[in-house]
UniProtKB/TrEMBL annotation:
PROSITE patterns: D_2_HYDROXYACID_DH_2, D_2_HYDROXYACID_DH_3. InterPro entries: D-isomer_2-hydroxyacid_DH (IPR050223), D-isomer_DH_CS (IPR029753), D-isomer_DH_NAD-bd (IPR006140), NAD(P)-bd_dom_sf (IPR036291). Pfam families: 2-Hacid_dh_C (PF02826). Keywords: NAD, Oxidoreductase. Residues 121-299 form the D-isomer specific 2-hydroxyacid dehydrogenase NAD-binding domain. CDD domains: 2-Hacid_dh_8. The keyword Oxidoreductase applies. This is Hydroxyacid dehydrogenase.
Length: 339
């Protein structure tokens, strides 16, 4: 073990097992001197302080405690934190960034399951699947299937946010034959055109225009102070009657109370994988509306998909050991534009 990079795992034990199954753990063991003790879940214990004292690489995941100044003081040799999950905002704060430690996130690996989930929901919502399933359970059977409300042909989908997930969703939608609108203040027409191969295309528009023109609106913007309640009552009112709102990004982007009112009026349908607050309290109106489906933040990597996050993280460890730039590098100035 002498001379090898010392690494420590900090996350929930079940997450460690899912992200690093036996074959992956063997790959990791071949790259670094992995701390042999239990996965760290509390940085305040004597065992954690001992492990952190010699750690050069900290592999983190869901359930990792916050790395505040006190914790960082116990890890004088720490040079890289590699996160086998998406956002690093929950455990890396100002104290971390001031120390010049490298950070990496597996957000790219987590993006595809979210994009795949989003496309599935959009296709299902166009068929009014959830409404029809309830109708069927009540004794109805396709008696409204010829209504122009049903179907995906000729539909326009508006994508709010050209994030890493938004940029995956756009070509998926184009290949399915949707007309695609995108609203993002950082996206140029040339950037948008590069997202989809010919003969498909995408149109960059302002947010209000996107809301007015779309049959489905899917949200992929980061949750920042300036995007809090980006879809407020006034903006939701711009959406077409019979349109669908899909949110797999962050709940705070949408005014929950306003959305509940618009859905209760029957004007728009909603599929929400994220909410504000999260979770919603039992009995919340959104749970009770027949035109709303709420799922428990499951669009990202789950179950068998979590190993993909671990594989990405192991790749980053290998790049660190070899002195190569990290593919998922996160810098402090990135925080203002990422989830």
């Amino acid at each position: 073990m002498a001379g090898r990079v010392a690494a420590v795992l900090a996350m929930r034990p079940d997450v460690a097992d899912a992200a690093f199954p036996a074959a992956s753990r063997a790959r990791l063991d071949a790259l670094v001197a992995l701390d042999p003790g239990p996965v760290l879940t509390d940085f305040g214990t004597p065992r954690a302080r001992e492990a952190l004292a010699g750690a050069e690489v900290l592999l983190t995941g869901w359930g990792c405690p916050v790395l505040d100044a006190g914790v960082l003081d116990t890890a004088p040799r720490l040079r890289a934190v590699i996160h086998a999950a998406g956002s690093v905002k929950h455990h890396l704060g100002p104290d971390f960034w001031a120390r010049g430690i490298l950070a990496s996130s597996a957000a790219d690996a987590n993006a595809y399951p979210v994009a795949q989930f989003t496309l599935s929901v959009i296709l299902l919502s166009g068929k009014r699947t959830f409404e029809m399933a309830r109708h069927y359970a009540e004794g109805g059977f396709k008696d409204a299937a010829t209504s122009p409300r049903f179907g995906n042909a000729g539909r326009t989908v508006g994508v709010i946010g050209a994030s890493r997930i938004g940029r995956l969703v756009v070509p998926m939608l184009a290949r399915e034959g949707f007309r695609v609108l995108v609203s993002d203040p950082t996206l140029t027409a040339a950037d948008a055109a590069a997202l989809v191969p010919a003969p498909w295309s995408v149109e960059v528009v302002g947010l209000d225009e996107l809301l007015r023109r779309s049959d489905v609106v899917t949200v992929h913007a980061p949750s920042l102070p300036e995007t809090h309640h980006l879809l407020d009552d006034a903006r939701l009112a711009l959406m077409r009657d019979g349109s669908v709102l899909v949110n797999t990004a962050r709940g705070a982007l949408v005014d929950t109370d306003a959305l509940a009112r618009h859905c209760a009026a029957g004007r728009i349908d909603a599929f929400l994988d994220v909410t504000d607050p999260e979770p919603l309290p039992p009995g919340h109106p959104l749970f009770l509306l027949p035109n709303v489906v709420v799922t428990p933040h499951l669009a990202g990597a789950m179950g068998s998909e979590v190993a993909g996050l671990g594989d990405f993280a192991i790749g980053e460890v290998e790049r660190y050991v070899r002195g190569l730039p990290l593919r998922g590098a996160v810098r402090e100035d990135d925080l203002a534009r990422i989830a």
